[in-house]
Amino acid sequence: MNDPMLPLPGLSPVSGKTVVAKFDGGLLSSDGGVLVLREVEQRLRVADRLAACMVDPRAPELITHSLADIIRFRLLMIAAGYEDGNDASSLRGDPMFKMALDLSPSDRELCSQSTISRLENLPNARALLRMGRAMVDLYCESFHKIPKRITLDIDDTFDAVHGGQQLRLFNAHYDEYGFQPIVVFDGGGRFITAVLRPAKRPGGKEIRAFLRRLLRAIRANWPKTEILLRGDSHYCCPEVLDWCRSNGLDFILGVAPTSTLRRHILDLEANARARFEAAPSAGKVRRFREFLDGAASWSRVERIITNCQQAVPRTVSEIAVHDDRSG
Predict the structure, then answer these.
(1) pLDDT digits 0-9 by tens, 203-225
(2) Mean pLDDT, the chain, as a whole number?
(3) Residue 313, SS3?
């Protein structure tokens, strides 16, 4: 591992001290943090979970890199900031990445970019669904005690691409080509699951199918946990609301400043705040208002509910949508 190059002579001293440049350090790496990530991955077994969701079509006697090792290498690359699969061509010989995959720096090289590309094109639709279920199981196992109630924050985000990737689509709002995956976190900021999709606004049927699979996976682990769904205005569509009602779920709508409901919410908040300030000893003021939206996209009377109590002020108003017959 030692490089026989001679030292670089003739460097000027610094603060009266001699500067010597040598090239006998052997294999070096600037990605020492990968070893810490290795400990996290070993504890969570993310690569093993995802590998178990796929069927390896390769001949067992000819396999050099297992599916779990390929996934583990790819996960560590992304976590270290190497998002491009082409980076594997240089990182496959990196001593830190080798040690993270239980190899010594002098052992064989890790998998190449072409192997990673074949892996990323291997899963079919059923395998992807199983992988999504595995991530939900991982989330549920992260709790030491089954929670009585959880809040699911669902939203989509734009991910720009700079090539001819599959599923890419031009989004006029962002003026770029990219993806628009749906991601779900809980109220404490823990990641639950995600789905990669084209860069267009998701429709009600697509959201409902995604939520149905997600709730089924969570209920398999926590059958008695109360689930509260929270999303912005385009997730509060008739298909999703009707599905929430039929499954006994509450939907919390995080209203953006441009929402048509903003004026109603501000008036209701002001009314509740004034009542609370007039009688703070009560500890809490709860007000609601029933309405039908102007676009008539909801087929029944909905209810805006606001709570005013001694707590940390929220920067985004939240309203709970209930059936008017539920009280």
Answers:
(1) 889 999 999 999 999 999 999 99
(2) 82
(3) coil
Question: What's the pLDDT tens digit per position in 102-159?
Answer: 998 888 999 999 999 999 999 999 999 999 999 999 999 999 999 999 999 999 999 9
Residue 321 above 90 pLDDT? no
- The CB-based long-range contact list for 75-79 (8 Å cut-off, 24+ gap) reads 75/41, 75/46, 75/47, 76/34, 76/37, 76/38, 76/41, 76/100, 79/34, 79/37
Dump pLDDT digits (tens) for 8-40: 777 888 998 988 887 777 777 788 889 999 999
The encoded tokens of residue 43 equal 């504890």
**Residue 100 and residue 35 in contact, taking contact as beta carbons nearer than 8 Å:** yes
CA angle 122–123–128, rounded 5-degree value: 160
Q: Which amino acid is it at 101?
A: L
Q: What is the largest CA-CA distance in the chain?
A: 87
**Which DSSP string corresponds to 3-34?**
--PPPB--PPPBTTB---B-----S--S-TTH
Interacting residues of 160 by C-beta distance below 8 A, sequence separation 6+ = 174, 176, 177, 178
222 phi, psi to nearest 5 deg = -125, 85
Tokens of 27: 């294999």
According to DSSP, the residues that pair with 21 across neighbouring strands are 8
Joined tokens for residue 295 = 């676009």
Q: Are 301 and 290 in contact (CB under 8 A)?
A: yes
